[in-house]
Amino acid sequence: MHSKLALALALALAAGSAHAQSFRFMTGPQGGSWYPLGGAIQGLVEKAIPGSSVQVAPGAGISNVRAIQDGKAEFGFGNGVSSVDGVAGREPFKAKQDNVCQVGTLYFQYFHMVALADSGVKTVADLKGKALTTQQRGNTGEQMTRDVLKVYGLDYGAMSKVNHGSYNDSVAQLKDGHAQVFGLITTVPASAVMDLAASRDIRVLEVPDDKLKALQQINAGYDKRIIKAGSYPKQDKDVQTIGTWTHMIASCKLPEDQVYRVTKALAENIGTLGAVVAAVKEISVKDMAIDVGVPYHPGALKYFKEAKVK
After folding, report:
1. Which tens digit of pLDDT belongs to each residue from 198-244?
2. Cβ–Cβ under 8 Å, residues 77 and 100
3. Which residues of 256-294 are buried (b: 16+ CB within 10 A; e: fewer)?
4. CA-CA distance, 295 to 298, in Å (whole number)?
5. CA-CA distance, 30 to 115, in Å (whole number)?
6. d(Cα 26, Cα 20) in Å, to the nearest integer?
């Protein structure tokens, strides 16, 4: 009798473990907005798919696309400009990323080129010979930094030094005087930039219309955006820059029902996510369905059609 009971219990446990599912979710570098947002979404996914667990890991826009394509993650954040490059198979990707599907568009991110006020840097053209800090390769912000330098006829070789690291690393380098300029993509106001501005006077550099047009020749997804006056200490005028949409992506191989549940959970908890990243508060379900150029996962499309926004 005891052996039968033990066998039944073992079979029940085996059946339960078969239904349990673990998801890997790639977010962003520590000090940015993606990492804490991923933590909030982790809870929503685990609730939406009973018995599931989500492992949140730091990542970056370009490398997250690669991770999903290669089966190293099931979910991740991406930036519209670089995700579309991946789907199309354009540089820095070596082939079409055909296992990457759209879940939902979340908020707009702004490119920042931030200089120390005492560095003598007033425009990007002044960066020659300066020490630059930015993210690791594989980050959309790092790619955008190189693209912005390129339209000014500059590259990393024109800098006195180039450091790569997390937002927190870059802020520390600027505070310590090991760098004069910081290139990144994030929300406004950016917590990393506010941290820097608390101890050093800063200047946010402009990307004017002629440079915007040149950037759009590199990537048509670059969009004009304004960092409004007063966004940062001593910023007394609007600053024109570029940006792109942050969106959530998933493996196209995930079952339709799972991604449907995740999309529904995101749409029904915009307020919860907005408490983590303020920019999310401004979106609607219709905004979530914005087409950034990445094919929709059938589960996401099913939800948006039910919500009558697609």
Report:
1. 999 999 999 999 999 999 988 877 889 999 999 999 999 999 999 99
2. no
3. eebbbbbbbbbbebbeebbebbebbeebebebbbeebbb
4. 9
5. 21
6. 20
**285: helix, coil or strand?**
helix
Provide the b/e sequence for 145-157 (b: ≥16 CB within 10 Å): bbbbbebbebeee
Q: How far apart are CA 176 and CA 173, in angstroms?
A: 5
Question: Please, what is the end-to-end C-alpha distance for the chain in angstroms?
Answer: 58
**pLDDT mean values, one per 10 residues, the chain (310 residues):** 48 46 92 91 96 95 96 96 92 94 95 97 97 92 95 97 94 96 92 94 97 90 92 96 95 97 97 93 94 95 95
pTM: 0.80
pLDDT in tens, 11-47: 444 444 435 699 999 999 877 889 999 999 999 999 9
Tell me the C-alpha distance between 94 and 100, whole Å: 15
Alpha carbons 296 and 98: distance in angstroms, whole number:
12
Cis check for the bond before 92: say yes or no (omega within 30 of 0): yes
Output the pLDDT for position 220. Answer: 78
* Residue among 28, 106, 32 at smallest CA distance from 65: 28
What is the identity of the amino acid at 199?
A: S
Q: Tell me the C-alpha to C-alpha distance, in Å, between residue 90 and each of 5, 15, 83, 117, 280.
A: 58, 44, 10, 37, 29
- Residue 202 CA, chain-centre distance (Å), reads 24
